[in-house]
């Protein structure tokens, strides 16, 4: 309707292309609409004649030691690492052995790499959180490149009494959700402890005590078990299987 306010402004999805702006006096525009008759091809030719487009300056090569330090810091930001773990990460990124050794030596001097502290913290954390025994913990430390003497010293802080208490706690917790005949439950629980690295004698003794305290039927079954004989049988099977 003529004269009605709010008519279409033509700026919506169906708007016509905007008309080219006129150049201010003394300022040429980019296209032929400015009246100069110079196309974009002509501008490119002029630029080429003046020496070509300006290229970005090539970034200088990064210092290898600086890159090695950056890799180590990123690794250490996730969790503590052993020297062997960091050395592996540097090798994968192409850092030379000489530069890697220099950087790792320096990080060791300032305490950012400490395999002994790593081993102690690992043993405490994994035993408390996952209930792992010394045998399983020793295997994990070896996989992370911890020296055998350093690992042995850290594992020495986990004594046999603590290991036995943890095994019994694991069995008690598992028994709450385990159902079946006593012999099947027995084998299942012993296998669970074995996977966590407990020796046969410790595993069998913990399960026997837990079953004896569970019910009369389980107690009767547990009384028939000889932990020492079962442990010897388990060790014999392991030797025959090459374990």
Can you give me a brief rundown of this structure?
The chain has 243 residues and is an all-alpha fold. The protein is 60% helix and 0% strand.
Question: How does this structure look, described?
Answer:
This protein is mainly α and 243 residues long. It has three domains: 50 residues, Arc Repressor Mutant, subunit A, CATH 1.10.10; 45 residues, Arc Repressor Mutant, subunit A (Orthogonal Bundle), CATH 1.10.10; 85 residues. It is built from twelve helices and no strands. α8 crosses α10 and α10 packs antiparallel against α11. The longest helix has 16 residues. The N and C termini lie far apart (94 Å).
Give the SSE layout.
Elements: H1 40-49, H2 64-78, H3 83-92, H4 97-109, H5 115-130, H6 134-143, H7 148-155, H8 160-175, H9 182-195, H10 200-212, H11 216-223, H12 227-240
Helix pairs in contact: 2-4, 3-4, 5-7, 6-7, 8-10, 9-10, 10-11, 10-12
- For the termini, the CA-CA separation is 94 Å
Helix content: 55-70%
Number of strands: 0
Principal-axis shape: elongated
Unreliable parts: 1-17, 28-40, 43-49, 235-243
- Treating each run of at least 4 consecutive H or I residues as one helix, how many helices? 12
**Structural class per helix/strand content?**
mainly alpha
SS strand fraction: under 5%
What is the helix/strand order?
HHHHHHHHHHHH
Number of domains: 3
Assembly state here? Answer: single chain
pLDDT averaged over residues: 78
Main beta-sheet strand count, sense and barrel state: none
Radius of gyration: 37 Å
